[in-house]
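Narrative of accomplishments. A recurring question from our advisory board has been how the design workflow behaves on a single, concrete structure rather than in aggregate. To address it, we present the structure tokens for one chain from the evaluation set, followed by the sequence designed for it. No filtering or post-editing was applied between the two.
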């Protein structure tokens, strides 16, 4: 997994937790697989499905922490979700903000 260098160089991301940075790298990897599989919704957004349980398993944490980490990524405009309802997992979208991660201030 690759973590963007800007997460460590930009003051904007300094307060982001290390676990959230790791989760972003994991989700970015899943996003790239969705690009290859052409998983695009009707609005042209590339999406992937990654449940809270899968996140908790990958990070090695509980469900509550996994939810907290997803909220943290949303706070930094790095992640979006679309609810499917009917007990189906949410579709996870890479927000437009993540395509242009803030650069370090010069």
């Amino acid at each position: 997994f690759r973590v963007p260098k800007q997460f460590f160089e930009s003051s904007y991301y300094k307060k982001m937790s290390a676990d959230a940075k790791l989760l972003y790298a994991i989700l970015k990897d899943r996003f790239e697989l969705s690009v290859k599989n052409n998983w695009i919704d009707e609005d042209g957004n590339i999406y992937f499905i990654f449940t809270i349980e899968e996140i908790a398993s990958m990070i090695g944490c509980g469900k509550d922490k996994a939810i907290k980490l997803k909220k943290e990524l949303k706070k930094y405009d790095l992640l979006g979700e679309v609810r499917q309802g009917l007990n189906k997992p949410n579709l996870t979208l890479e927000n437009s903000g993540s395509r242009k991660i803030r650069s370090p201030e010069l």
